[in-house]
Amino acid sequence: MFDKIKQLSKDTAIYGISTMLGRFLNFILVPFYTNIFPPEQYGIISNLYAVIAIMNIVFIYGLDSAYLKFAESEEYPNKKENFSTPFLSVLTTSIIFILIFVLSQHQVNRFLSIPIEYDYLIYYGAGILFFDALAVLPFIYLRLERKTIKFSTIKILNIFLNIVLNLFLILVLEMGIEAVFISNLAASILSLILLSPSIIKRLSFSFNKVLYKRLLKFGLPYLPGGLAGIFIQVIDRPIVEHLTDLSTLGIYQANYKLGIFMMLYVVMFQYAWQPFFLQNEKEPNAKEIFAKVLTIFTTIGSIILIFLSIFIVEIVTTPFFGKTLIGKDYWSGISIVPIILLGYLFNGMYVNFTAGIYIKEKSMYVPIIMGVGAITNIAANFILIPIFNIMGAAIATLASYFMMAVGFYFAVQKHYPINYEFGKIARIFLAILIVTLSYYLLAELNYLNGYVKLLLCIAYLFMLVAFRVVTKNELSFLTNKIFRKTGISKL
Asked: 357 and 419 in one domain?
């Protein structure tokens, strides 16, 4: 079993190094923006990117998940047709969507409270949507072929160009927030150019109608599900702006971005996890492997959660080269970061549970569960923001991810039951609770300092062993098989 998990850990590490590097480079823009743009302008950026994130789901309408499912299917052995059919569909519909999106620009701008002098930003957003949509399926192709180096290189080059252009356009040419979208558009075009050899290799201009119907049947439920999922990530932005103001939204979004550290962990795991469970679903001990993966994932995620939550103030406020991670005007929102981190951890848990959805082709549950998560998020935002301000928005995000994790677990157990190690996972959260209560008690007694915080982190690691969450064999596997083999221990 550990040999299979070793394969997953290797792919996770490869995707992880590139994803962490790429996302970290992208995250550099957060302190850059927050130290240059006032919260009001950063709020405009956040609002428009919320719409772009939502429309990304519409532009692909579940064909990414469907292609992932059927690309290597024995029922449809023509791999070129398996790629060309969904790709040509996305190309055609993307052109139509772009026209609709541009023609409705005034309505979109008014809904987002974007000042009239920034109306033109919608054209950049439309371009970003078009080129990103065409890149989705080629990226999945690279994952399926395990071309991790090429995948990672393109992702990193995309972000590197984005950052360089941001610095040049804003610092040298002294452009305003339009530079953010121009840079993103150029980076999206670069990605598609670099992916073009893979597209040409797979594209045959043949369209399999029978396959297409199967793709739509499996993929379309992911459209409302995907929209619900992205709503959970971005719908809080217009709600925060509506119930407060653009400045508060800017503060909220800058601190929400600090959840990137847990989000990176979840994303790099997801990149490796989806091909892994599809390739190993027929193994005789597949369910045992999948159960162990959830335990290991939650254990590592909890360590990230504890360390970052305890030291987040120091991480944010310690100056580097005269600048802090986010500008001082944004520090009032630091308290939401642990809640966002925990939300992303539950996000990763529901990613684990979705294995059964793919294996048993039960995508009909996706829109229902994701819809419940979205409704939870929207309702909680409207209830909690007037009471707790941006902390209410953070709690709403946590609640929605928790609801989705629970929903996917119970839905999948009906069709693909797995005996997860919930006893260990419960002990993980008990240890988290103990450390959290100790932290706030020590803070109340004014006993909290850097040394005490470090001791709390060490105590948490000891609790994982004392509570038998991590056994001796598993600890040896994690250190020797993952860290040493991937070279992480040498860093």
From this structure: yes
| DSSP H helices in 318-389 | 337-353, 355-359, 365-388
239 and 381 Cβ atoms separated by less than 8 Å: yes
Buried b (16+ CB within 10 A) or exposed e, 355-375: bbbbbeebbebbbebbbbbbe
Residue 38 lies in a domain: no
Q: Total domain count for the chain? A: 2
Identify the three-state secondary structure at position 152: helix
**DSSP three-state, residue 320:** strand
Q: Is the dihedral of CA 306, 310, 312, 318 positive or negative?
A: negative
Q: What is the pLDDT of residues 419-458, one digit of tens each?
A: 999 999 999 999 999 999 999 999 988 888 889 999 999 9
Q: Is residue 70 domain-resident?
A: yes
As a whole number of angstroms, the distance between CA 441 and CA 448 comes to 9
Q: Which of 288, 140, 272, 267 is nearest to 215 (CA)?
A: 140
Q: CA 79, CA 77: separation in Å to the nearest integer? A: 6
What does the alpha-carbon distance between residue 455 and residue 468 come to, in Å, rounded to a whole number? 20
pLDDT at position 26 is 58
Instruction: Round to whole Å and give the CA distance between 316 and 337.
Output: 11
CA 308 → CA 7, 265, 425, 429, distances in Å?
Answer: 28, 13, 20, 16
Residue 20 lies in a domain: no
Domain that holds residue 125: 62-219
In a domain, 21, yes or no: no
Q: Give residue 491's pLDDT.
A: 34
Residues 276 and 215 in one domain: no
Both tokens of 288, joined, read: 């045992």
How many CB atoms within 10 Å of residue 323? 12
Mean pLDDT of the chain: 83
Distance between CA 455 and CA 23 in Å, rounded?
30
What would the mean pLDDT of 269-288 be, rounded to a whole number? 80
Question: Which residue in 112, 138, 95, 119 sits closest to 54, CA to CA?
Answer: 112
Task: Look at residues 269, 147, 258, 133 and name the one whose alpha carbon lies nearest to residue 192.
Answer: 133
148-162, 209-223, 330-344: which has the highest mean pLDDT? 330-344
